[in-house]
Amino acid sequence: MNHSPRTRTVAGCTILVIALGAGVTACSGDSPLTAEPYDAAEQISFNGPVGDGKKADPDKPLEVTAEDDDGRITDVTAMDATGRYVAGELSADGTRWHSTTPLAANARYTLRVSTEDEDGAPGRKVLTFDTGKPVTKKRLAVTFGPKAGTYGVGQPITAKLSKPLKDKAQRAVVERALKVESTPSVSGAWHWVDDKELHYRPQEYWPAHATIQVRSNLEGIKVSDRLWGGKAKPLKITTGDHVLALTDASSHSMTVYKNGEAIKTIPVTTGKPGFETRNGVKVVLGKEYFVRMRGTSIGIAEGSAESYDLPVYYATRVTWSGEYVHAAPWSVGSQGSANVSHGCTGMSTANAQWFFETVREGDVVKVINSQGNTMEPFGNGFGDWNLAWANWRKGSALVAGNPEGPDPQEAARLRPTAV
Please, are residues 173 and 101 in contact by the beta-carbon 8 Å criterion? Predict the structure, then answer.
């Protein structure tokens, strides 16, 4: 097969003998390793359209085949104009390469194919082609959370989908397209909370004063036969200081740490028997200067011995079911010595105001030595950090297995507001 124009010369070698007896082999002329790559157009075939205004069907995989019995394909890369690569597999004998991830619709691709002939001389062919529109108009939208801003180091990233996905292969397509980058850099993973929501967190908390950027490469990517990725607005958040509030229910105290240093210890009261405060890690969800708390919201009958209807100030929310850190002037006599609340962490008004002004959304509130259950991983706020890292990774569609721990759908058993 003639690959001209090019020179395929393998010249003889001259052995130079140096005085000390060491031998060096020098070759004159061109070798296969240094030859200019020849045009491999006649050596390969491609199943996509090239020229003539035709467009490739994004539903079909790419395929490159070696047509020369004495040559083989050595490498193939396919990348669209936005920098997204298409994964693929090359057969062991170098006769065929095919894509293994979906193409994007309405995209322009550059395909670079490297080959070699029977003498080992390198060949190359660069092809460009466009993909057409998908047959269906159904789009899978992704909405990232939280809103742009500054958060504590415990804030997970959320991705909510416009349509449910149960199939693991479809979930994998979506998960590969969701990108999270942080400065300084830390590794993390997505975890499927349910069919329409994913959370992302590192193995440990985010670094203090980090910048976290989230984006989706899903637009135009085929997810299923009738569903394609849609647009997603990117997200950028930052973290503040590393703030952790550690509450020891057995010693009735809370110690607040800032960047590893204890800055204040506060006498508190937590949940009494039958209303024990949840153990484990929670994340600040928001702050409310005033909340009216009623016992009826957690199933306590009005007029019973446990009934209450109280104005509460400086309330820092840590669960959607109504667990707060708040001012409890009525229990100051028990703070530091007994647990008398209905599940919240109570403290003096002055201490609650200090706490309210010190923490922000995403800061970490951890409870130890309570007789209560462990905070749910999902459905009642952000209990994500209560899953061990190995179990968190199992919730990824790119890792085999399923997460251990409470079912994400157990939110129905959660209790509303308590004091």
Answer: yes
pLDDT in tens, 9-42: 333 333 333 333 344 434 444 445 556 888 888 8
Domain end point (choices 68, 101, 130): 130
Q: Is residue 12 part of a domain?
A: no
Exposed e or buried b per residue across 152-169, where buried means at least 16 C-beta atoms within 10 angstroms of its C-beta: bbbbbbbbebeeebeeee
Is residue 51 situated within a structural domain?
yes
Candidates 10, 9, 76; CA nearest to 40 is 76
- Domain span including residue 78: 38-130
d(CA 289, CA 356) in angstroms, rounded, equals 8
CATH code (residue 223): 2.60.40.3710
CA–CA gap between residue 208 and residue 317 (Å, rounded): 22
Q: DSSP letters of 70-126?
A: T-EEEEEEEEETTSPBPPEEE-TTSSEEEE-SPPBTT-EEEEEEEEE-TT--EEEEE
Q: Which residues sit opposite 61 in a β-bridge?
A: none
Q: Are 235 and 354 within one domain?
A: no
Indicate whether 247 and 366 sit together in one domain: yes
Q: H/E element holding 205?
A: none
Residues contacting residue 150 through CB under 8 Å, at least 6 positions apart:
237, 238, 239, 240, 360
Which helix (H) or strand (E) element contains residue 206?
A: none
Q: At 278, which CATH number?
A: 2.40.440.10
98 is catalytic: no
First vs last C-alpha separation in the chain? 85
Residue 105, C-beta contacts closer than 8 angstroms, at least 6 positions apart: 58, 131, 132, 133, 134, 220, 221, 222, 228
Please identify which residue in the block is written with the tokens 């300084």. Answer: 184
Give the tens place of pLDDT for each residue, 341-386: 989 999 999 999 999 999 999 999 999 999 999 999 999 999 999 9
Please indicate, yes or no, whether residues 166 and 262 belong to a single structural domain of this protein. Answer: no
Catalytic residue from among 199, 242, 326, 342: 326
Asked which of 130, 153, 188 is the last residue of a domain, the reply is 130
- SS3 (DSSP) at 174: helix
Distances (CA, A) of 259 to 22, 40, 68, 74, 238: 62, 59, 64, 52, 16
Amino acid sitting at position 390: A
